[in-house]
Amino acid sequence: MIELLHTIEASVQQVAAEACSLIQVPPFVAMLHPDDPAPWFNYAMPIAGLETAAANLPALRQVFHAQQRQLRFEWTRELWPELEAILRDAGIKVDHINPQMICLPEQFKPYHNPAVSLRMLTTADDLAHYRQVTRLGFGDYSAISQADVDSLHDALTDGWRYAMATIEGELAAVGGYKPTSLGVVELVAIATLPAWRRRGAAASLTSFLVADHFANAGKLAFLFAADAIAQATYAKIGFQQIATHLAATEE
């Protein structure tokens, strides 16, 4: 399992390297987006033994502050069990704990609610509306800018695979993934509008994305479940928890 978890972390770094600057401050690598300050685009993860972690936190903090980013960490507890205590001693508290789940081809249980229509997003679609649904699904009511639209357009051009789930002609759920050379992908930004929840939109969309990945020689899909309801939804289509994902942000 440890080798598999390291492969998953390697796939995360591979995708991040396409959009972010990767700066090594042993035993961490800082992944910093040049334009977008969103926390999920800017964080550090451990990549080596943690013997020097506490001593090198000031240098890592300086790297983040130089880019006007808040110091943040993401890691797998089972790979780096000591990190939580190291950060706590430095006054940095864990703010997210999520089940890390995987699905292999032999575990996959396709699901589709016939009331949900599914297809891939294209650059010809209303990208502003797609971005808005993503934000609203996560409780973010901020306005969509042209930069948000351009970013999504660029992502599609760069090979990201985003899906659309519609119910009664309305966009209900969204989400996507970026193929990697490892055949291991993370399903990200899976969100459902509140009005369409409990209708099978998220499960249908997730299943659609996993099927697309496996149809293109994918080996494994993984994700982080936001809560128990999401975890049960993903389990229905074959995802199983193998680890715990943690995040911590310095205030």
Automatic annotation (TrEMBL):
Alphabetized InterPro entries for the sequence: Acyl_CoA_acyltransferase (IPR016181), GNAT_dom (IPR000182)
MF terms (GO), sorted A to Z: acyltransferase activity, transferring groups other than amino-acyl groups
PROSITE patterns xref list: GNAT (PS51186)
Limits of the N-acetyltransferase domain: 116-251
Coiled-coil parts of chain: none
Domain of life: Bacteria
Name the UniProt record assigns to this protein: GCN5-related N-acetyltransferase
Source species of the chain: Herpetosiphon aurantiacus (strain ATCC 23779 / DSM 785 / 114-95)
Taxonomy of the source species: Bacteria, Bacillati, Chloroflexota, Chloroflexia, Herpetosiphonales
